[in-house]
Amino acid sequence: MEETTFTLPATERQLAYARSLALRNQTLLPWAVQQDRRDLSRWIEEQSKLRPAAPDPRPSSKQVAFAERLARIKRRAVPDECFRDRQMLSRWIDSNR
Hints:
Layout: H1 12-24, H2 31-34, H3 37-49, H4 61-74, H5 86-95
Helix pairs in contact: 1-3, 4-5
């Protein structure tokens, strides 16, 4: 007797969640996995157990804008190295409020 397996297409909800996990974990969502509901479910299970990738160390655009506004008010320049590190810019902002 021959065993036949049927593949069910992944649901839109599954695909949306899988894409968000792929972004969070900074990984690729394989095309082949997206074609089968069970395979995608296994992939989601594995990815949801992983810790999220480290956040971007660069400051946010709002943080940079705030620092530049402070610098204009205080009539001083923001050191260049502060634009490369979120923590460093945060400390500069705190010390120049």
